[in-house]
Amino acid sequence: MALVPQTALVTGAARRIGRAVAEALLADGWSVAAHVHHDDDDVPAGATRIVADLAAADCAQQIFAAIDAAGLPPVTLVVNNAARFAYDTFGAASADEFDAHMAINARAPMLIIAEWARRHAGEAALAVNISDAKLAAPNPDYLSYTLSKYALAGLTEVAARALAARGLRVNAIAPAQMLPSGGQDEAAFEITHDLNPLQHGVTPDDLVAALRFLIAQPAMTGQTLTIDGGQRFLALLRDVQFLEQQ
């Protein structure tokens, strides 16, 4: 049975991919708890803004307390989308940057899924972690970010195994680059976006379609949907955004 829309928690919902996901879920009839980092961050019309610092050890309690205070229906969908994405590479990565990536990209999703599961009241429910297709063919660029996404992939597998008997599913979506990132301008993005065997750049709509599939697929847990146009087959030596510089 597909999930019946109740409340969907989307982290990092103020902009970019998180905002696109929140807007799509609102259109599908979900109540959306749109997590943001700052008090003045905007959220899509119709969503409930939830402010929390994902680097805080009590971020999950803050988020769910705010959802309770807003009087929203039970959370039956969690989309762990928010992520830190700062450049470093092998041999030039600091302990502080590594810890900052792990706190937001891996620890916060772990805490959110654990709190969500603790509150689970018997409905079918789903958590989706937004990973990265570069894990299928890694390179040293964005090292701390990449390692934190490996941790998130491990969380997906472990949490799925731990929660399956309770009817809670945990899956992941691993997209290739969908929007300009880092210091990349629009022209550079256009050069590299379709750099894959299918010559089809991944878009936020592709991610939303994958999310809708997972919502409608009650028999899938512990799986990662990689959507990259086959880019992993190329075994790129640099992050895709840097290739047009070579």
TrEMBL record:
The UniProt record lists the keyword Oxidoreductase: yes
Signal peptide: none
Keywords, alphabetical: Oxidoreductase
Domain of life, source organism: Bacteria
GO molecular function, one term: oxidoreductase activity
Family to which the UniProt record says this protein belongs: Belongs to the short-chain dehydrogenases/reductases (SDR) family.
Name of the molecule in the record: SDR family oxidoreductase
